[in-house]
């Protein structure tokens, strides 16, 4: 298929559901590179990589408009006219991602403590 994958294969590779991939297409975050003669969505490697980036953004709490903007920043080339603005905005996104990672680590520690409490309780029975 000339290096293209159908949506089912993409879902399997990315761990995203068919519904989620279709939704990301509907809201304009990803667009299949082609369609088969039968009308099936066909995704090239860059499309799949884009879905992987989106998947990594999701747990960090990025909203759709932020995802769209961040993808545009990641896709854009550096230009002298807007370079500093792009860099500043990318830095803001990076700071948000770091803050969210820190928050998720804290939540994980709390969850692990609770799981340990349950393990200890079960060992007492």
From TrEMBL:
The keyword Coiled coil applies. SMART domains: HTH_MERR. It holds the Pfam family MerR_1. It comes from the Bacteria. GO terms for molecular function: DNA binding; DNA-binding transcription factor activity. Residues 4-73 form the HTH merR-type domain. Residues 87-114 form a coiled coil. The keyword Isomerase does not apply. Keywords: Coiled coil, DNA-binding. This is DNA-binding transcriptional MerR regulator. It comes from Halosaccharopolyspora lacisalsi.
């Amino acid at each position: 298929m000339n290096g293209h994958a159908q949506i089912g294969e993409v879902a399997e590779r990315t761990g995203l559901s068919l519904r989620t991939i279709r939704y990301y297409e509907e809201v304009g975050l990803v667009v299949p590179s082609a369609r088969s003669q039968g009308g099936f969505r066909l995704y090239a490697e860059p499309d799949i990589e884009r879905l992987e980036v989106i998947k990594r953004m999701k747990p960090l709490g990025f909203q759709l408009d932020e995802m769209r903007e961040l993808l545009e920043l990641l896709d854009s080339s550096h230009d002298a006219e807007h370079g500093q603005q792009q860099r500043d905005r990318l830095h803001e996104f990076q700071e948000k991602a770091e803050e969210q990672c820190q928050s998720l680590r804290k939540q994980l520690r709390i969850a692990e403590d609770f799981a340990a409490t349950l393990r200890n309780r079960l060992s007492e029975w």
